[in-house]
Design brief:
By secondary structure, this protein is an alpha+beta fold. The protein has 3 domains: 131 residues, Peptidase S59, nucleoporin (c-terminal autoproteolytic domain of nucleoporin nup98, 2-Layer Sandwich); 115 residues, Immunoglobulin-like (Sandwich), CATH 2.60.40; 28 residues. It has 4 helices and 21 strands. A 6-stranded antiparallel β-sheet has the order 2-3-4-8-12-11, with no helix packed on it. The protein starts with a helix and ends with a helix.
């Protein structure tokens, strides 16, 4: 009887404990999504500040700034909230109880510099009351919900040479647009690589700093390499980045930044590089050799060369070895 009585007490205590736990407020089948309450007060309530994460994209999350009441429509389920590295969406028709002011925390996005925030594919102006860049994360305060997304800044056009093997550089022409024809800009080209920790690392800055000499006389100080930037003329500049000096990373971002006394323009684009053959650039040999196709053909050539050397030695011995 004592065992039965103790079991009944424990059962009641367990049930009471379960009931006392504050509901999470979400019911996702997708294991990437989790939720909690930002201001837990210990009461059984669903009217605290709700926060929903996507743990599969570096803990990107939405945090509602005011109390959210889920008692009418119940827990948030799959499809009602979607969070990605560069987009966030709330189904405001199905969940009008979530159509309130919130903070969007984008983490794990693919941009090396500050991107642009869009609402429904259009530049977010009045709905995005504050945008902050905290390290690699981006926090956006919004007044209500729709489709929010991030896109790379492309304040001007960049035209790249399609023959990057030329002089181990990729040459480009940038056009700052008609509104900037009369303004002088200084432009710098940067290459960022993403490391194993998904952090952007500045791999290269162009123009390469060195003195370009004349045939006679002092170095030409008007060259970009001497100036440290690419000057524009009538809103147009010729630039480059060094293709054969990029190695050790899988993902790259090309960033061109042009500044005047009052304006800063940015262009960002994801790029893939083409490494030079090992015989043409020493710094690229390690990367070139790790490529599966190159390694295969290199092995074939080495074995074939050794075999040819062996045959030649046998012929030599028979012919001249006595």
């Amino acid at each position: 009887m004592k065992l039965i009585y103790i079991s009944m007490i424990l059962g009641l205590m367990l049930m009471t404990g379960v009931m006392a736990v504050e509901p999470i407020g979400v019911d996702f089948t997708d294991s990437c999504y989790v939720g909690d309450w930002a201001n837990t007060d210990g009461n059984i309530s669903t009217t605290n500040d709700l926060r929903i994460y996507n743990t599969c994209v570096a803990d990107s999350y939405i945090e509602w700034n005011d109390s959210v009441d889920l008692t009418i429509l119940g827990n948030v389920t799959d499809g009602e909230v979607e969070i990605g590295p560069d987009y966030m969406y709330v189904d405001s028709v199905a969940r009008p109880d979530l159509d309130f002011a919130a903070t969007l925390h984008f983490s794990g996005h693919s941009f090396a510099v500050a991107p642009i925030v869009l609402k429904d594919g259009i530049l977010c102006a009045s709905s995005c009351t504050d945008v902050q860049y905290v390290g690699g994360a981006i926090e956006v305060d919004v007044t209500g919900f729709s489709n929010y997304s991030l896109v790379a800044r492309r304040d001007f056009e960049v035209f790249s040479d399609q023959e990057p093997e030329l002089d181990a550089k990729v040459y480009q022409t940038i056009d700052l647009g008609a509104s900037n024809r009369g303004t002088e800009f200084a432009c710098v080209v940067q290459i960022f690589g993403r490391n194993d920790a998904s952090q952007w690392v500045l791999v290269q800055t162009n123009p390469e700093r060195k003195a370009i000499g004349n045939v006679f006389g002092d170095p030409d100080t008007n060259q970009p390499e001497s100036l440290g930037y690419f000057p524009t003329k009538n809103g147009v500049a010729n630039t480059y980045f060094r293709d054969h000096r990029i190695h050790g990373y899988n993902d790259f971002e090309l960033v061109v930044q042009c500044t005047s006394n009052s304006t800063k323009l940015v262009y960002e684009e994801s790029i893939s590089t083409r490494y030079l053959p090992a015989s043409r650039a020493l710094v690229s040999r390690g990367v070139w050799l790790t490529d599966g196709t190159n390694a295969f053909y290199l092995t074939v050539w080495v074995i074939g060369g050794l075999f040819a050397l062996w045959i030649g030695g046998m012929v030599w011995r028979r012919s001249f070895g006595g």
